[in-house]
Amino acid sequence: MNLILLGAPGAGKGTQAELIVEKLGIPSISTGNMLREAMRNGTDLGKQVKQYMDEGSLVPDELILGIVAERVAQPDCANGFILDGVPRTLAQAEALDAKGVRIDHVVSIEVDDSVIEGRMTGRRVCSNCGASYHVVANAPKTEGVCDLCQGSLIIRKDDAPETVRHRLEVYHASTEVLKQYYNQQGKLRLIEGNQDIQSINDQILTVIGAKA
Ligand code: ADP
Ligand code: ADP
Ligand code: ZN
Questions:
Q1: d(Cα 28, Cα 98) in Å, to the nearest integer?
Q2: pLDDT value of residue 211
Q3: pLDDT-derived band at 143, boundaries 50, 70, 90
Q4: What letter does residue 11 receive in the DSSP assignment?
Q5: Can the peptide bond before residue 87 be classed as cis, meaning omega within 30 degrees of 0?
Q6: How far does the centroid of ligand 3 lie from the alpha carbon of residue 67, in Å?
Q7: For the CA of 85, the nearest atom of ligand 1
Q8: Within 13 A of 141's CA, how many CA atoms are on the CB side?
Q9: pTM for the full model?
Q10: Residues that place a CB less than 5 A from ion ligand 3
């Protein structure tokens, strides 16, 4: 089961990816989390991407494709994987096809821009594992602490309202076209994202044929 999760920043891709990981036992590959980890570790990649990420612009395709190709080739991806936040441009989608990365379903979580700001101002992410929480809609068991790994929860710098507005523009300009690309391949599944987390999860599992 090879999945792509599409959707605007804050649509709930990371949240749903975690639930699918629990249900199906396949890994989630979040390019955003991988890039943030590289920045934390001060690697060359981290230094190269910092400015793009801080301003909410896309990181160049060739940097992304390198890390994704390497990751999906690892043994834990043999039975499937979830791509969260990649591809984000037509060039990235075409490159995955060209590399022979098979995709079964592309789930697009549809959320109005007007809903996004509230999601982002309440978002807290684990500084250790990247898990995503919300102070109201998906609060951790202990305030400020990750349920999964006990890491401390932080506010992402790029969740500041001005940066979120730019990220939404980038989404509409560069990423939304992917829906058409995958629709032509017969793989696109649209999910109404203005619903609670569990209802969305049930619908995703249904459209990918994984409902128990
Ligand atoms: P969100 O889903 O909330 O928009 P992500 O964690 O997926 O956030 O992405 C955060 C930032 O990481 C993006 O604004 C961009 O700078 C960079 N990024 C992540 N994935 C990609 C990608 N596939 N292509 C280009 N840039 C990316
Ligand atoms: P993405 O990975 O698409 O950027 P996240 O999964 O991090 O989005 O979700 C963004 C924020 O919205 C987080 O604070 C998350 O807890 C919250 N959230 C996710 N799904 C929902 C939902 N269906 N209803 C309300 N809040 C949600
Ligand atoms: Zn954690």
A1: 21
A2: 83
A3: very high
A4: S
A5: yes
A6: 22
A7: 7
A8: 6
A9: 0.97
A10: 126, 128-129, 131, 146, 148-149, 151
